[in-house]
Design a protein that fits this description.
Blueprint lengths: L7 E5 L3 H13 L3 E5 L2 H10 L4 E5 L7 H11 L5 E5 L13 E4 L5 H22 L1
Parallel strand pairs: 1-2, 1-3, 3-4, 4-5
Helix pairs in contact: 2-3
Length: about 130
């Protein structure tokens, strides 16, 4: 008998401490966690793995989170994307993401709940189309 696979959350943040915190949070919530610190690494992993939800930092060295989101949506438009930022999204960027949260104002458990909600919705959509 096959064991059910855990949903995969891909977190992209150039701050190591943020990735370590999210790793603990998401693994405790039953997710498989993938964490990377650059857009290039994120896109490579996104192509190679079946990712359920992506959590992106907006401001990173080298590439903004929304630049990564554009490429991810081009490859797999149904994968939900959450952007975390200390600032607001610019006009037009909101269409790229399923949720945007201000870093200083979101509680860790709220982020986990939003990912759970998006994974559930994404799974339901995939099941209804097969």
């Amino acid at each position: 008998m096959n064991s059910p696979t855990r949903p995969v959350v891909l977190c992209v943040d150039d701050e190591d401490s943020q990735l370590m915190l999210r790793k603990m949070l998401f693994e405790q919530a039953g997710f498989e966690f993938l964490g990377v610190q650059s857009g290039t690494e994120a896109l490579k992993l996104f192509r190679a793995r079946d990712v359920g939800v992506v959590v992106l930092d907006y401001w990173m060295s080298g590439m903004k989170g929304t630049e990564i989101a554009v490429e991810m949506k081009r490859q797999r438009p149904k994968v939900p994307i959450i952007v975390l930022s200390g600032f607001g999204l610019l006009p037009g960027e909101a269409s790229l993401v399923n949720a945007w949260f201000q870093k200083g104002k979101i509680q860790p458990e709220d982020l986990v709940r939003e990912v759970q909600r998006l994974v559930g919705r994404s799974t339901d959509t995939q099941q209804n189309t097969t």
